[in-house]
Amino acid sequence: MLSGNFHTHTVFCDGENTAREMAEKAMELGFTHLGFSGHMDSEIRMDLAAYNAEIGRLQDLYRGRMEILRGVELDLLYTPQGDEEAALLRQMEYLIGSVHYVEAGDGTLIAVDDSAERLTKGCERYFDGDYYRLARAYYELEAEVYDRLHCTFAGHFDLITRFNDDLHFLDESDPRYYKPALEAMEYLVSEGVPFEINCGAVNRGRKAELYPNRFLLGKLKEMGGEILINSDAHHKDLLNGGFETAVRTALDSGFTHTNFLEHSADGKTVFRQVPLDAELQMHCTGAL
Fold it and tell me: Which end of the chain is more exposed for a tag (fewer CB within 10 A), N or C?
């Protein structure tokens, strides 16, 4: 099975377990790599000093047994609160670039994944109920995650569809929806930005499909894009949640490898390719 996850939340933000509990569970699962990526956005703001200290302590504790990386999931529209916070953010070893909000004309932030009611009210008030306009605005922001954040990889690319299984406000096969998505994807691929296959909505029973969906994932492969497979775990029991589905979907889309993050000899954060071969698929599915 896959032995690493790089999208992990703890009680420092909106997770349910401590960082130590997450690390202990990762060891139990046979992980070789674990990346912590607490939220920093307009509504969830970690104590970065305490976070840095605890992840650093765990790095020392597990050194030689499991590689731990200190990251952050930074929202595109988040502004650091002062020079000290900005300096602490620069100490992170990797950064997930995510879009959780669309900004309305008066500066109001419309959350795309908080609740269906909040999204609906925001679309009705600021986009005249036109979800395709809202989706275009969302993907215009997605296209900026590298230029503005210099992210290591892009998080849950099509998060705008978080409630679409229930509300059906977007036809994801409609060019009005997918053309802006492909434009953003093509630009990010041209900048060398990898995309995560995010299992969070699947492993929590919120959606039938991964982020990005199968169509977009296939297009990503055609564009020559790179992937990481992440559980977006908010609970220790979901650290490898959805990996079986993600590996199978990646293979079906033509990908032959995923990527792990790790420390190089000089302490930098680098990518390492991990093959997604038939043997790995069988181990994930229990077919052997």
Answer: C
Q: Which amino acid type is present at position 200? A: G
| E strand or H helix at 264 | none
Answer yes or no: are the C-beta atoms of 19 and 12 closer than 8 Å: yes
The residue type at 270:
V
Question: At which residue do the structure tokens 């500066």 appear?
Answer: 107
E strand map for 9-112 = 33-40, 67-75, 94-98, 101-103, 109-111
Across 127-135, average pLDDT: 98
pLDDT digits (tens, 9 = 90+) for 189-230: 999 999 999 999 999 888 889 999 999 999 999 999 999 999
Whole-angstrom distance, CA of residue 35 vs CA of residue 84: 23
Give residue-wise pLDDT tens across range 222-243.
999 999 999 999 999 999 999 9
Strand ranges, E, within the chain: 4-5, 33-40, 67-75, 94-98, 101-103, 109-111, 153-154, 195-198, 227-230, 257-263, 269-275
- CB contact at 8 A, 219 and 185: yes
Task: Using the structure block, give the residue that is written with the tokens 């602490």.
Answer: 88
Which residue in 123, 86, 118 sits closest to 104, CA to CA?
123
Contact criterion met (CB below 8 Å) for 62 and 27: yes
Question: Using CA atoms, how far apart are residues 228 and 4, in angstroms rounded to an integer?
Answer: 10
